[in-house]
């Protein structure tokens, strides 16, 4: 009721001022048209200000043609840069339109090396009929085979000449590849300790804080889900490698590989204690320092306290 009376009073006011409903709508329509004209003018000015980019994105074979820019009309360097952002599937689709560009060897070489950072075949003279596009397909098939059966996958790579039959070459391939299933990889490394030894030596822990180095180690070599001989082997190999990478720090702190081994186990147990929802009473910093120094008496209290802070703030070392 109140809104209706307000509208009546407002209409009477407009009529008294010489405005009708029609003239008011006409004036409002005119205002919107003027605003749109100003907006379009501004847009044209902006387009003229960036005339090179605007015309580059609108490049077509003819004025009537609509659709995506034709890469063949661009400089080759720019076309290759655009195509380098595509994955293998999209690049195969692009080759249906731009066959010469999308089949370029440099593009497929980049795809191979960005996914599989090291292969023995990279350092050899390519055989007759070699192409990086074909190599990509073989690497992809071999990775899928490895994720189903690691031994068959490695044998496939060797049969195609992609990998040499050498523990060091296999270790480099694993270290530089992120497409392998970590569960299958863990089984394979447990069986191939020679490959595991070479894989550990590829890590460089120089000037790294112990918990951070342990996280990096377990990102490449995943820890088993349960304690056992394999976990002990991993921690032992890590401890020796960490000491070898930081001899000055070990002398300064008075740490040996055995002491680092104890610290690693303490960090893993602390990680479980602080992150597990099943543990209600979390270990305090004072308790961690006391328990750790009982096992390794030569370690300073401040250093052990920094270890606790790192786990508390960053999280699990083997997550």
From TrEMBL:
Keyword annotations for this protein, in alphabetical order, are:
Guanine-nucleotide releasing factor
Keyword set includes Hydrolase: no
Domain SEC7: residue ranges: 133-314
Q: Which GO terms describe its biological process?
A: regulation of ARF protein signal transduction
GO: which molecular function terms?
A: guanyl-nucleotide exchange factor activity
> What are the F-box domain coordinates in residue numbering?
68-111
Q: Which SUPFAM superfamilies match?
A: F-box domain, Sec7 domain
Q: Name one Pfam family in it.
A: F-box-like
Q: Which CDD domains has this protein been placed in?
A: F-box_FBXO8, Sec7
Q: Which domain of life is it from?
A: Eukaryota
Q: Does the keyword Magnesium apply?
A: no
Which InterPro entries does UniProt cross-reference here? F-box-like_dom_sf, F-box_dom, FBXO8_F-box, Sec7_C_sf, Sec7_dom, Sec7_dom_sf
Q: What PANTHER family does the annotation carry? A: F-BOX ONLY PROTEIN 8, GUANYL-NUCLEOTIDE EXCHANGE FACTOR
Role description: May promote guanine-nucleotide exchange on an ARF. Promotes the activation of ARF through replacement of GDP with GTP.
This chain belongs to the protein called F-box only protein 8
Species per Swiss-Prot/TrEMBL record = Meleagris gallopavo (Wild turkey)
């Amino acid at each position: 009721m109140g809104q209706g009376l307000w509208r009546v009073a407002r209409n009477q006011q407009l009529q008294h001022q010489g405005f009708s409903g029609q003239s008011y709508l006409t004036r409002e329509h005119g205002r919107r048209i003027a605003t749109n004209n100003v907006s379009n003018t501004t847009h044209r000015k902006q387009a003229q200000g960036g005339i090179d980019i605007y015309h580059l994105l609108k490049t077509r074979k003819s004025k009537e043609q609509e659709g995506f820019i034709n890469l063949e009309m661009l400089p080759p360097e720019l076309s290759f840069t655009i195509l380098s952002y595509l994955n293998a599937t999209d690049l195969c689709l692009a080759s249906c339109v731009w066959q010469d560009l999308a089949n370029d060897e440099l593009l497929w070489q980049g795809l191979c090396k960005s996914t599989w950072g090291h292969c023995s075949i990279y350092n050899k003279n390519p055989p007759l009929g070699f192409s990086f596009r074909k190599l990509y397909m073989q690497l992809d098939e071999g990775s899928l085979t490895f994720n189903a059966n690691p031994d068959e996958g490695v044998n496939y790579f060797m049969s195609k000449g992609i990998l040499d039959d050498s523990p060091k070459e296999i270790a480099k391939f694993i270290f530089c590849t992120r497409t392998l299933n970590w569960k299958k990889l863990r089984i394979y490394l447990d069986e191939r300790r020679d490959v595991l030894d070479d894989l550990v030596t590829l890590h460089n822990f120089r000037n790294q804080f112990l918990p951070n180095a342990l996280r990096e180690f377990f990102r490449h070599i995943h820890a088993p889900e349960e304690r056992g001989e394999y976990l002990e082997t991993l921690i032992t190999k890590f401890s020796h490698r960490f000491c070898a990478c930081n001899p000055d720090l070990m002398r300064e702190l008075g740490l040996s590989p055995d002491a680092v081994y104890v610290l690693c186990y303490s960090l893993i147990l602390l990680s479980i204690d602080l992150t597990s929802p099943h543990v209600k009473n979390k270990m305090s910093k004072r308790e961690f320092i006391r328990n750790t120094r009982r096992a390794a008496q030569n370690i300073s209290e401040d250093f052990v306290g920094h270890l606790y802070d790192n786990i508390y703030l960053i999280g699990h070392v083997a997550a």
